[in-house]
Amino acid sequence: MRPAADFLEWSERGRCGPSSRCLRGFVWFLRRDGGTNIGKSLDSHFKLGDAVLFIDRKGRRYLKILRPGVKLLIRGELMADDVVGVEEGSRVKFSSGENYLALRPTYADLIPHLPRAAQVIYPKDTGPLLIWGDVFPGATVIEGGTGAGALTIALLRAVGPNGRVISYEIREDFAMAARKNVATFFGDAPNWTLRLHDLYQGFEETGVDRVFLDLPEPGRALPIAAKALRAGGVLVCYVPTTVQLKDTCEALQQSPSFGEIESFETMLRFWQVKGMSVRPMHRMIAHSAFIIVSRRLSDTVTPLPPTPIEDERVIIDEDGIVNDDPDDAA
Q1: Which domains, and CATH codes, for the chain?
Q2: pLDDT recorded at residue 263
Q3: Which string of DSSP letters, residue by residue, matches 277-324?
Q4: Which of 39, 303, 308, 325 is most buried, most CB within 10 Å of its CB?
């Protein structure tokens, strides 16, 4: 039996969304030697240290780590060493005679099941955050509020080795969890800086390209974000409630440093396509949070007065073109 210090075991059972996306009864091993090979350059054959999804004929998923001399137990058993060298996308047979499709897990497979004390940002929001936040290779990004490190991993992948991610977290337990998760599920990240610091007291960096705020009160941090962002930079706020949405948007509207404010949410629904049965799944991933995007304006810009609410309306002309500017519709 391996010493308890060699790993931290974490497991979760039960429902986690549509059954085809569910990892049932899985176990993570966070090792002191740097964790799995997730996030590193991989070839098509499994190696020791890889995380592997074993998928049965009913679509149930089981996540295992390939460790030398360890038996993989699902229904029946299989030595992890026997999976090493197998090409990804192959079927492997356990001692019970049952075959399982073996694949490396994707980001979307992993993130909902990260060991965490805080709620993670789920993959359905991660994509829009990166795209609307316009995160590009080589960018310098500040992340305010790290949580379990789910968005941190996505940002590190997006900025690439020539970019930089600086994360601010006020809670030491969250920072420790993020550090472990990044080490385990991304790997070495020399271009990542994690600061245990109250960001409301200010960022150390200036001239950064993007700022992401996952905070209860993003509006309080706008002056700090404005000092850190370069002109033309993008600020992205992530808030779960309508009250926070309203407060944050109003703070942005009143700030002379930000403009081009947009807010939205994303909803994700899987579909079942089996023969003549083509229908939405009974469960869907609906509201999780609101995404608020704005641009850092130049300090030389004179702020425009806010448009009265009663003047805001959408007009569809005779050609079916939407025009939300009443003056242009005249």
Answers
A1: 4-105 (3.10.330.20), 109-303 (3.40.50.150)
A2: 97
A3: EEEE-S--B----EEEEEEEPPTTSPPPPPPPGGG---EE-TTS-EE-
A4: 39
